[in-house]
Every structure is written in C-alpha cells, then in structure tokens.
Amino acid sequence: MKKLSAFIAGLLFGIGLLLAGMANPAKVLGFLDITGVWDPSLAWVMFGAIGVAWMPFHWAMKQSHSVLGAAMQIPTQRTLDRRLIGGSLLFGIGWGIAGICPGPGLVLLLSGHWQAWVFVLAMLAGMQVFTRLTASRP
Amino acid sequence: MLIDTLHFTPWSSLAGGALIGLSASLLIVANGRIAGISGVLGSLLQRGSEGWGEKAMFILGLLLAPLLWGLFHVLPLAEFQSGVLGLVSAGLLVGVGTRYGSGCTSGHGVCGLSRLSPRSIVATLSFMLAGFATVWVIRHLLGLMP
Prior knowledge:
Strand content of chain B: under 5%
Low-confidence stretches of chain B: none
Shape of chain B: globular
Radius of gyration of chain B: 17 Å
Order of helices and strands of chain B: EHHHHHH
Largest sheet of chain A: none
Number of strands of chain B: 1
Number of strands of chain A: 1
Strand content of chain A: under 5%
Oligomer: heterodimer
Mean pLDDT of chain A: 95
Distance between the termini of chain B: 17 Å
Helix content of chain A: 55-70%
Number of domains of chain B: 1
Shape of chain A: globular
Structural class of chain B: mainly alpha
Number of domains of chain A: 1
Low-confidence stretches of chain A: none
Helix content of chain B: 55-70%
Radius of gyration of chain A: 17 Å
Largest interface: A-B, 115 and 112 residues
Mean pLDDT of chain B: 95
Structural class of chain A: mainly alpha
C-alpha cells in the first residue's frame, strides 16, 4: 500500500511538472532571467504547490504516524550552517546553467531527450561524490 | 523588469503546481515522507537505506509520468539551451549541491516552505539567488545564451 501511494505520488509529481511547463529548461531559465524578459510562471507553480500542500503539512507536523502507519519523517534539524547555504548556492549555479533541477531531469529521461541523460548521469555522479566525501570524513 | 507575456502561463503553471502540491501532500500524509527528489534519489544510491522500495516506486512514478501523459496528449516542448559541457557541469553542481544543501526545489522549495522551515527558507533563497545570478552572468554579462 505504501509502495502504491509512493508510486501514485511520483506519477502526480511528474504530470504536475509537465503541465506546469517546468519540464522545459528554456521556461525555467526564462524565470531565472529576472533582469531580462521575465517569465514568472515558476512562481505560480510554487504558489499552486504550497497552496495545496500547506494544510496537509501543518496537519502532518502534529502527527507521530502517517495515515498508513509509517513514522512521520519530518526533518527536525534547525541549524543554518555552511553546508546548507553553500550546497544550495552550488545547486543554484548548476540550475542556472542548464535550467534543470532533479525532478524535471528525471521526467525528461523518458521523454526522448538525450540531453536529459547527460544531465542526470552527471547529477548522479555528483551525488556519488558527496557520498564518498562525507563517508570518508568522521 | 519586463514580463514575458508571450511565454507566461499562469493557469497551467498554477494547476501543475497544485498537482505537485497534491503529490507532496499524499507522500507526507500516507507515507510520512518528504517529497524531495534529490533526497529520495540520493538515498536510493546509498546501500541499506530504509524504505528503499517506497522511494524506488516514487522515482519510478516520476520516470513513467511522461509515458502516461503521452497516452493522452503530445508531450510539451522541451528546449535545451546548453551543450554537453554545460549539461555535465550543471549536473555535477546540482548533484553535489543538493546533497550538501539537503534538498532541492521540491524538498526545500515546496515541502519546506509549506511547513515554514527556516532551513528551507534560507536554502530556497540561496538557490534562487544563485540561479538568478548565474543566468545574469551567462546571458547578460557574457552574452552566451539567447
């Protein structure tokens, strides 16, 4: 059951990205180009997503278990450290270069674009770099 | 600032965003998990991570979404504006950065902002600012892209 709900959530997420126009790197770059001719669509995606997710998340924060009985895994860490900010800045630079973040990268894989494969393989390599670096450190 | 009225799609973007919000809501309410793509994907790469099956099914759904869409409608246009070098450097930065920063547009941007997490607000501001600055440098300072 939990696998089914996770699968449906994945499908919904992907359909949402496609409908929102966010699986088009040029459109994402149009949003990031605030000093040029600006396409505010991505902000509307965020409004739509947060508007719907607000109540369920505020409900979930008060629960110890999910509806299907799984432990509620909401991050509890509160420190604003260099890793959080530095990592997010690096991500933003990469996002600004190609206009692709992890979700759209995966959605584009089976949409028939070779560029998505190049991007996703490099992204997986980057994630492996992180795993290796953090595993070797105490 | 000039608004790109030709490409601005308020209604479909709002509706698509609502579906993303529904997806994140389903995953937190049913599975108790954060719908953060980079976090889920990153932990799938690590051996012995808990809930591997659920996480794999979430990613599988995401991968199959364009095939489901394709049964009913032509897939929307996807225009890439970077070459192989750009794609590789972007991918590496996104991979390393999202893991160090513990999240991306979905985990911090959608889930984190929905619960008003201070870490996610700081992370979202950081990657948005870096994204704006990068596009400004590439397009306007170096004049490399359309």
